[in-house]
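This part of the workshop introduces the protein records we will be handling. To make this concrete, we reproduce a full record directly below:
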Amino acid sequence: MKIDHLFVQSFLGIQALDIQTSTPITLICGPNGAGKSSCRDGIKLALTADLGRVSLKKDAGQLVRTGDSQAICEVRDADGDTWAVTISAAGKIADSQKGRQTDPTLAYVLDAQRFAQLDATERRAFLFGLMGVKLDGAAVAAKLAERGCDTAKAARIAPMLRAGFQAAAEDAKAQATAAKGAWRAVTGETFGSEKAKTWKAAVPPYDAAALAQLGTELQHLDVAIGQWQESAGKLVAEESRRAQLRSMLPALREAAAVEARKAEKLEYDRSGLQAADHMLAQAQAAAGGAPRVGLVHDLARAVAFFLLAEIDGEEPDADVEAAKAALAAYVSAHGSLDTGAAGDPDARARLPELQRQLNLMQSAVANAERDLTAARAAKQRAADIDAELAEVFDAAALADARTKVDELKAARGAKTAELDKLKSIKALAEAADEKTLKAGELAADVAAWDALGDALGPDGLPAQLLAEALGPLNERLAQHAADTEWMHIRVTPEMQIEMVQRGREYRLLSESERWRCDAMLAEAISHISGARLLVLDRADVLDLQGRGELLGWLDVLAEAGEVDSALVFATLKALPAGLPETIEAHWIEGGTVGAMAELYAGEVTA
């Protein structure tokens, strides 16, 4: 970021600061309490919207200079883009940053001590983000695939990465141990990585050709047994039928024996029927014309009336002829309608009984005819059975068929036992092959899980990722040490900041050593992120030589085009003289930046 213009007004200790930067490096110096840190905080507020000295937005009004209505903090770059924040005395904030994507590394560029204040976990996360090292499941899975790890197992272990690489590595190793136990259960032997590569189960020998031959022979035996069983079955069915016929003969003969009696009874019943019919007819004739009641008689009288009413001289039509025929049929059956009521009353009284007797004789004749028919049918059936049983049954053929079936079944049993034995041997061989296959799969599982555990272990992917994150950073720090002739610092894989020459941790360094360390770290972060911006406060912590080395280092960076803008704040007695062309100095006092005084000759003073 190449800063073109700085403007801060009524913010904390700043009354008015308006600087048009014309060099890559801007030095803002002045006495204590002049507003240097307020200037730095205003620049930070404009670029990141970080309120800094107040933690709550409702307290933002406290940042406005006492007695003023609002504070303005504004930064413009060489492209004309402007970042500005305005705060009213009432605490209302207007932020031009809204809708913009703020670079998270700016916080570390604007506050050089920020990186050293992080703990190890926060530093690692920041560096991974700075270097674009992805730690999500998909990214880790892709890197594991590059290492040749099993992708399915890597996906299975991915959820454990939320707890860290160590937890995932331990889980992979536990899976490998479980696979070794399963291999031992299958093989019955102690697992060995080399042994597992070539282990095979012992395969018992068996004659596959003999097994096939036995199968063919059994098929032939089954066909022969089926044929003989069919023959025997037919003979057995015939024998059973003959026995059943013999059992039926006594009943049939008994039923046939009554044929003559049934015939005599039928003749007797037929005679009785004729007599009953005759007696009923005589009684009906003697009964005379008793009043006839009932529908049929009413209809006959209606027909007679209809015929009496026909017109004389007209040709009779079909309906009249039909009525005459119906009346004639009635007369034939019941006598003339003109018959009077005179007749034998006793005869009329006997009519119902005679009719009942006639009905009984009709039933008796029907039953007698049925019984005679049944007796004759039984006689014929008995004769047919006798004729069938007169034929000779081949009992010897049945005995021979049964013997053949027994012999073939015995032969089949022997062949089956032999076949079962061969099948058992074959099953053992197949089980051995399956065991070998299963052991191979488990051995592959062990190798895959071990490889995954190694890849996730400290010397695997974590070391690779750390190298990707730390390599460029430490290389930049080493270059700074060479350019400044300051101490060589580095960030260790354990995320410790240390002085290489003495192996001393950051927390054990002096104040000036820590300042140098922070400055180099901030520039390395700025360079790697592409921000190309550096803000260094309290440069006066360095001695005269250190300040000269600082300005010389910044001049080298500016000449090399590796920094666009660097803002340095220092408490000095006066403006320094003899500055390189890349550095412009401004004096701040009483919260106001005045015109740059005449350059003093000589070295920078404390």
